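Because showing beats explaining, we let one protein speak, sequence and backbone structure tokens together, and leave readers to judge.
___
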Amino acid sequence: MASTQAETISGGPRCQRLGEILIGRKLIETEDLEKALELQKERGDKLGKILVGDKGMTLYIFTKDVPDQSNCSGDCLKKWPPLKTLGKPNLGAGVDASLISTASLPDGSMILTYNKMPLYYFAGDAAAGDVKGEGVGSVWFVISPLGKVIPLPAPIPTPKPKKNNGMGGGYTY
């Protein structure tokens, strides 16, 4: 009989409920949780509440996916590993259970979906708190516990220098 495993997803800038689950499973130590909470706080200050998976790693959606169907395959899945599940996932506080479902991947495995959108990690994120996948290709974004895409913050416009039209300041003879 195959064992049932599930990834953990959670929402919120401090991610305490995820830590409690991981400590309970003896997957992390208290010191690791404290470090992850600090990293999550820093990340949350920039993007607000976002979904994270096992060990506090950021979860992303691919805007080229359609509801309940992944359009990421081959090399895409190497850069963007799916949040797979073999059973019912463990949900943290702030995660809406009614938004959780699954979709099939081409290999027959199941990817967890949130608000009908498949969830992925980014291979470029090395540690809890990393959000290096946010905005990649203008198609990869973090997702809120409400199931909404969190876009990149708008850039702050920089003032343009005034042009000198040749009419100022100098003396003419």
Remarks:
- The CA atoms of residues 56 and 134 lie 15 Å apart.
- The helical segments are 16-24, 30-47, 75-79.
